[in-house]
Amino acid sequence: RLGWPDIQSLKSDEECIQYLADLPEGGGIGLEAMQSALIERLRNGLSDDESLLCRRLSLAITTFQRCAGEAVWTLDREFAQFQSVWGRCVSKVFESTSPGRFAIPEVYESGFRRELTSEEQKALHTVIAEAFQNQGSRSKDVFDVHASVFHRLLGGDAERAMHDASMYITYASGPGASQ
Fold it and tell me: Which residues pair with 78 in a beta bridge?
């Protein structure tokens, strides 16, 4: 995902020279130049819809499930299109971290985040918080609760974040909880 398929496909000295010439600043010396080149190369291989989904999910502070993708997609897009865009992002960009959980590689994450305005980020944090809170399973994962509360704070809703955190603590320490 970080350019290895391109490097592996080079067959001749001329192709190697051209590949190096295409890198920024005479070979991309420096981490920032290399990261910019990798992000640009990824973006060139994505459709507008794929870029949009990646940009929106780049704000997730932890691994995310499909429901987070659905939530950020349906802000202004039709759900019917989601499955195909999700599937392409899973195969092109997302890393599978555990069954049903994904992440955007860190090198790309920061590039996508830079493209979001502060207003977009605030709105997306609220939507992502809802997605983490409403995962659908009967038991709450402590990491999902943490992510939901943290995204509420980043979305500017400290009161709701405190409410959700206290509700989880009450739930986790209630009858039948492990002592």
Answer: none
